Amino acid sequence: MRVAVFSTKKYDRQFFDRANEQAGHDLVFFEARLTPETSSLADGFDGICAFVNDQLDEEVLEVLAERGVKLIALRSAGFNHVDLKTATRLGLKVARVPAYSPFAVAEHTLALILALNRKIHRAYNRVREGNFSLDGLLGFDMHGRTVGIVGTGKIGTVFARLLSGFGCELLAYDPYPNDDCRELGVEYVEMKELLRRSDIISLHCPLHPETHHLIDEASVEEMKDGVMLINTSRGGLVDTAAVISGLKSEKIGALGLDVYEEETELFFEDLSDRVIRDDIFARLLTFPNVIITGHQGFFTQEALHNIAQTTLSNITAFETGEGTLHAVDYDV
Ligand code: NAD
Q: Is 143 a catalytic residue?
């Protein structure tokens, strides 16, 4: 099948080309992000392949359908950026990669926690400047600390398993608790109790209208003083202004983000010779107890391999009707 691949980076091409040796699709790679301005590039393609910051709203979907596109193959698990109602109305099938490596994101979450706790980002710079003072680098034992996990799906469960190895007390909130977590000793509680009891809170639930700004001013107020908050899920789960207030009042003692609600204009690009115009993001960068990574939780060799394989098998399944198509339907 002829597919236009948007937002392609060198590493995407490397993994897709390798996986496509078997799948044999006609892939055309575009570096451009999918937007109303670039959507006409899809002219003459049967399908498009998109990533998390590609624009898949009504305006773009209308153009894609007009140009003859029938399949939107997401190379992500999340699909909050797709207007599914419009896609269904236009007869566009949407497929995703439901799981590629829960380990990648869970391990990155742990990396943020450990780096923030032991101030690795500050220690790294200090030592390079010949400053071996330990002032300001005091951390705490993970052992015995209470960690609240919001969302115990695939990633949240792996994360719980990693933390159980540290001897942490594990709390979780999820409308659908799972037995794997219970067996690990996870105690399911209501969200308010999780906020009140946790030393570290980590978000692993999807973004949908009900979870938008799940962490807002009121929920920050409920948290323990000096709490560590981690979001490797989706930026929109957190009201950034509320979190900045929490950092300023020292209610929030550390913040680790791999996602940001306005990341579309920033992440995945080298903007090092430009001025950052997003004042809220720029403010976040000024705190010594904040670490931000640019949506790299998924970025391991295993995950990229699995993403390419599953995306191409989705395309094959759509084309031939054979194999599994990981479809996302409007009423999911
Ligand atoms: P999953 O579907 O396996 O699990 C999500 C869990 O969240 C489910 O158990 C669900 O019941 C629960 N949930 C739903 N609504 C909730 C709510 N209001 N409160 C608490 N829990 C709720 O998904 P997953 O594979 O574990 O991925 C989790 C999230 O991680 C994804 O939605 C995606 O946004 C994010 N993600 C980030 C990266 C990255 O690179 N940083 C990569 C992949 C996925």
A: no
